[in-house]
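Summary for the lay section of the report: proteins are chains of building blocks that fold into shapes. Here we show the chain for Carbon-monoxide dehydrogenase medium subunit and then a coded description of the shape we predicted for it.
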Amino acid sequence: MKLPPISYRRAGSADEAVALLAESGDDAAVLAGGQSLLLELRYGDVRRGVLVDLAGAADLAGLAVADGELRLGALVRHAAVERLELDDPLARLLRRAAAYVAHPPIRARGTFAGSLAWAHPAAEWCALARALDARMTVRGPAGEREVAAEDWFRGPHRTQRAPDEVLTAVTLPLLGAGAGVGFAELRRTSGSFALAAAGCAVHVAAGRVTRARIGLANAAGVPVRAAEAEAALVGSDGSPDAVRAAADAAAAAADPASEPHCSAEYRRHALGVLTARALTEALGEAA
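The coded shape description reads as follows.
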């Protein structure tokens, strides 16, 4: 792939990456997996003079479980999430969604945190981060801070990360034993972006839904947390009628855009259908 003239800098740590960004100002781009960024640079959709590569920052690698949470460093690849072995329903949900992320070669290079930093409205990880109350850790010249998923996404390819900050990790709460999870996606080809997708996690006790979390991809300019759909399901018996009511609420909460291969009306309908499928799968597990 031919790129326009650009200065390449390889950071050996998160702090070094922050320093390099501070030197370059708004003219720098952060490279983790690069599976989206390099294409944008190639076609001129993104114009930068400096590329700061995180590949050498060992402190940004690896994942860990502590205090009921899963923490994924900025260099954790999609493929590592696809192979995640963890005794919690969260791992099942992440593995199911990972299978829909592009192609295996892209999953081998692209990163979980990079997807959240890129903030594509159709990204599976962005929808799940929103549904699961993920927290993003960013580091900049002023130090480190955390941003909740509900505040992170500002629009297509726009987040709360400042130009001189690095997204260092993403933290996801574990779901706990007994939770059911589901994921459903519609796309044109096996490697296409999602035309629409829905992911969820539910808890059931004494025959009633006690908690539900539902995230939608490509439902608006940012990932959507379907709060109205969650409220429609909580307290119900999880029957097909309850699932349909929740799915209708999810579709109503969506504000999708039209594309050449998918009108807004069709996408909204698909989001309702996919929500119903994901919830049916999750309720079956929880039961």
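Put simply, here is one thing we learned. The chain has a mean pLDDT of 94.
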